[in-house]
Amino acid sequence: MTASTAVKLKPGDTVGILGGGQLGRMLAMAAARLGLRCQVFSPDPDSPAFDVVQNATCAEYADVEALELFANDVNVVTYEFENVPAATAMVLAARRPVLPAQKILETTQDRLIEKDFVSRLGIGTAGYADVSSTADLRAAIERIGLPAVIKTRRFGYDGKGQAIVRAGDDLDQIWEDLGTKSAILEAFVPFEREISVIAARSASGEVESFDVTENEHRDHILKISRAPAAIPDELAAQARAIAEKIATALDYVGVLAVEMFVVPGNGAPTVLVNEIAPRVHNSGHWTLDGASISQFEQHIRAIAGWPLGKPVRHGEVIMTNLIGDDILSYEEWLTVPGATVHLYGKGAPRPGRKMGHVTQVFPARKP
Ligand code: AMP
What we know:
Subunit structure: Homodimer.
Number of helices: 11
Radius of gyration: 20 Å
Structural class: alpha+beta
Order of helices and strands: EHEEHEHHHEHEEHEEEEEHEEHHEHEE
Largest sheet: 9 strands, antiparallel
Mean pLDDT: 96
Protein name: N5-carboxyaminoimidazole ribonucleotide synthase
Number of domains: 3
EC number: 6.3.4.18
GO molecular function, one term: ATP binding
InterPro entries: ATP-grasp (IPR011761), ATP-grasp_carboxylate-amine (IPR003135), ATP_grasp_subdomain_1 (IPR013815), PreATP-grasp_dom_sf (IPR016185), PurK (IPR005875), PurK_C (IPR040686), PurT/PurK_preATP-grasp (IPR054350), Rudment_hybrid_motif (IPR011054)
Bound molecules: adenosine monophosphate
CATH topology of the largest domain: D-amino Acid Aminotransferase, Chain A, domain 1
Distance between the termini: 52 Å
Number of strands: 17
């Protein structure tokens, strides 16, 4: 029942999407273009993804009856966020294929398990240590040094659930503020830049990655992505190979994002993996207008059992997130030549809330 190789949707079939945010919305729009329907499951009645589908389930992720009815209505289930509760995935997987597979969530929901997995593949990460008490924290600092970054093992995003630890800091206070007994300490990486690779893998093992994206954060939230990243070709090839290796090792079906740091190496820069997101990713939004196939379409193709696209980039691309009050300038963006504006249909602009994004494509000049 759950074997991913068994999934082969046909136009008119229905994809079930867990999560009703902008990622679910853009997945549903990509699916519609391919003649597929989507049903969105989200506990939030104001979910932006509800606006673009005919069928929606507004229920809690623990509502087994609602999950069963949802499963009955769809041909395959996917998700737009990584913190899908294990019990939710289990109920659904007993009835319909869930892609990417549930076991992938176990690896990517926990920073320690994820880092161990990446390290076992021989891929570089920041030095890290398991921390579950202030005594552990002191021992980890002895080993890793300062500055360092302490992160909760689970449920961290956009810089939440993490803090920088510097020499002289009150460690008891830092531990108390973190509010968990399960964390990791990471060496602080003096990175030159942050990049990400969006890769797709099909059930038959075909892998396609997009050109490497360079990411700029403000207040821990992605603000600007540029594609291609301004890095040497060999480094870009290395970054893509890492993402593809991870996708294959996870036996992954769908799109994933691998966030990496570029660090100065011995002679040439090198990359360290920061984080894996088992889903479409904000740093891949440029593909909607900047490439022949978007990350959203690529994900839908992968989970539908269809051939992956071979993405061709249309030029140099800049994606700017509209965060919080940035959205108030949408009319100005609408008048910018060459800009494509995406608004997520969310209500009030709260600080830090992703409200939309703008893509600008600068076509490559013919030589
Ligand atoms: P994360 O939640 O792990 O993606 O971290 C959010 C952001 O914090 C990253 O995009 C980096 O800008 C920064 N950051 C995270 N970990 C480290 C680290 N070990 N060293 C330096 N900066 C980091």
